[in-house]
Design the sequence.
């Protein structure tokens, strides 16, 4: 006769609860490690693109143009292929790229976006799409001053006057983005020249 007793329902539930707890304990450091890896990789990518943008400016003697649409068509043309028109020149006069092997995707599987934020006194900005506030704070703490409203790494915001009031609003609304501002990020005094940049017209191959 087999006298072995099976698990009761309560015992099974206890075992499942313990296993779930152990899995969650293991996953916390794994998730934390993934977050740190994304943060460090983003800073490294931004540094690489910073050097590419500076090289472009040194060659062309102009700020890179930009495309208001999200995507990497314009950025790829300017920094990788040279297949774009700029002030009637194809490619831009002095262009000596490629400056990057490819325009990279960020670690949130979205594209980086080269943009000008702030209207007539716009600041050239490398926008990181998809980053959470927590991760943005970590990036800022490592790469800048630890304050997302000041310095070279910020949540992109617009400041405007309306009926005597100062209104501060997020440029991209509820979209989770972080901006590497190029006013001081390797290129001093470039802010006042932002109006020189024209939109990017991609050349048809």
Sequence:
């Amino acid at each position: 006769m087999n006298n072995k007793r099976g698990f009761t329902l309560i015992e099974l539930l206890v075992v499942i609860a313990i296993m779930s707890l152990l899995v969650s304990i293991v996953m916390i450091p794994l998730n934390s490690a993934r977050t740190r890896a994304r943060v460090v990789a983003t800073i490294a990518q931004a540094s690489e693109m910073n050097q590419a943008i500076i090289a472009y400016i040194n060659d062309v003697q102009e700020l890179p143009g930009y495309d208001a649409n999200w995507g990497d068509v314009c950025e790829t043309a300017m920094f990788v292929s040279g297949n774009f028109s700029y002030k009637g020149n194809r490619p831009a006069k002095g262009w000596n790229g490629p400056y990057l092997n490819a325009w990279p995707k960020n670690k949130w599987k979205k594209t980086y976006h080269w943009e000008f934020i702030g209207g007539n006194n716009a600041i050239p900005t490398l926008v990181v799409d998809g980053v959470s506030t927590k991760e943005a704070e970590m990036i800022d703490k490592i790469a800048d001053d630890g304050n997302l409203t000041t310095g070279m790494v910020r949540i992109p915001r617009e400041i405007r006057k309306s009926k005597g009031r100062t209104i501060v609003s997020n440029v991209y609304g509820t979209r989770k983005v972080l901006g590497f501002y190029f006013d001081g990020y390797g290129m001093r005094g470039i802010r006042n020249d932002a109006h020189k940049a024209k939109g990017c017209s991609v050349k048809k191959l």
